[in-house]
Design goal:
The complex is a heterodimer of chains A (114) and B (112).
Chain A lengths: L3 E4 L2 E4 L5 E7 L5 E7 L6 E7 L2 E4 L7 E4 L5 E6 L8 E8 L9 E2 L3 E5 L1
Parallel strand pairs in A: 2-11
Antiparallel strand pairs in A: 1-3, 3-8, 4-5, 4-9, 5-6, 7-8, 9-10, 9-11
Chain B lengths: L3 E3 L2 E5 L4 E7 L6 E7 L5 E8 L4 E4 L2 E6 L4 E6 L8 E8 L8 E2 L3 E6 L1
Parallel strand pairs in B: 2-11
Antiparallel strand pairs in B: 1-3, 3-8, 4-5, 4-9, 6-7, 7-8, 9-10, 9-11
Classes of the chains: A mainly beta (114), B mainly beta (112).
Chain lengths: 114, 112
C-alpha cells in the first residue's frame, strides 16, 4: 500500500563517488519534493518539481541535482558527495503546490558517506 | 525569516494525555501540520489545520490553534507506547509553491 516509495532504504558510498537516490509514487501527484534531514534536525527542502518545472531552493548546494523523467519517478543525484552530506533523504509528493494540499512522505533513504 | 519552535522532549506514562506545543513566526501561515516520525522511517502526516480554525479533533488527536499568539498544540489522548516517536510541527505560507517549514521535532517517550 506504500504510495511514495524510496529506494534504496540504506546507501553507503565513498567520499566523492556519485550516488543516485530514487523515489516513485502511485498517487499521480503533480509535485515531488526532496528534503534533507540531518541527525536530530528538521527536514530541509532541497528542491521540488511541479510537473516538469524544477524549483531549486536558494541554499541547495550545487552538487545536488534532480531529474524527473515522468510523473511517477524522481531522482536525487549527488555528484561528489562530501562527509557532510550524510543524512536521511526524504521524498514527498503533493497533488498540487497550492497551500491546502498536504505533502505525503516516503520512508526515506539513509545515506552514509565514508 | 520563518521559524518554528518546539520543545525537544516529552515523557509521559501510558494512558495519560500528551500535549506537544509549537510556536511559529510567519503570520501568513495558512496551514499548520503535525507529522510523526518513527525511528528510521519517513514522516507520516497526522493531521493539519487551516488558520481560520481554532480546533480540530480526529479520534485521539486534538489540535488547538491560537493564531493571535502563533501557538499550535497537539494533544494525544490515552497515549500508548506505539505513540513513541518524534513529532514535527510544520507551517506553510500563503504562497503556492512555498516550502514546508519544520520545527526540530519533539521526541515523545511513553513508558508503561
Amino acid at each position: 500500500d506504500a504510495m511514495v516509495i524510496q529506494n534504496p532504504r540504506y546507501q553507503v558510498t565513498q567520499f566523492g563517488k556519485p550516488v543516485t537516490l530514487s523515489c516513485s509514487q502511485t498517487l499521480n501527484h503533480n509535485v515531488m519534493y526532496w528534503y534533507q534531514q540531518k541527525s536530530s534536525q528538521a527536514p530541509k527542502l532541497l528542491f521540488h518539481y511541479y510537473d516538469k518545472d524544477f524549483n531549486n531552493e536558494a541554499d541547495t548546494p550545487d552538487n545536488f541535482q534532480s531529474r524527473r523523467p515522468n510523473t511517477s519517478f524522481c531522482f536525487l543525484d549527488i555528484r561528489s558527495p562530501g562527509l557532510g552530506d550524510t543524512a536521511m533523504y526524504l521524498c514527498a509528493t503533493s497533488r498540487s503546490a497550492t497551500v491546502n494540499q498536504p505533502q505525503h512522505f516516503g520512508d526515506g533513504t539513509r545515506l552514509s558517506i565514508l | 525569516g520563518e521559524d518554528v519552535e518546539q520543545s525537544l522532549f516529552l515523557s509521559v506514562r501510558e494512558g495519560d494525555s500528551s500535549v506537544i506545543n509549537c510556536t511559529y513566526t510567519d503570520s501568513s501561515s495558512t496551514y499548520l501540520y503535525w507529522y510523526k516520525q518513527e525511528p528510521g522511517a519517513g514522516l507520516q502526516l497526522l493531521t493539519y489545520i487551516f488558520s481560520n480554525m481554532d480546533m480540530k479533533q480526529d479520534q485521539r488527536l486534538t489540535v488547538l490553534l491560537n493564531k493571535k499568539d502563533k501557538h499550535l498544540s497537539l494533544r494525544i489522548a490515552d497515549t500508548q507506547t506505539g505513540d513513541s516517536a518524534i513529532y514535527f510541527c510544520a507551517e506553510k505560507g500563503d504562497q503556492a509553491g512555498t516550502a514546508l517549514i519544520f520545527g526540530k521535532g519533539t521526541t515523545l517517550s511513553v513508558s508503561s
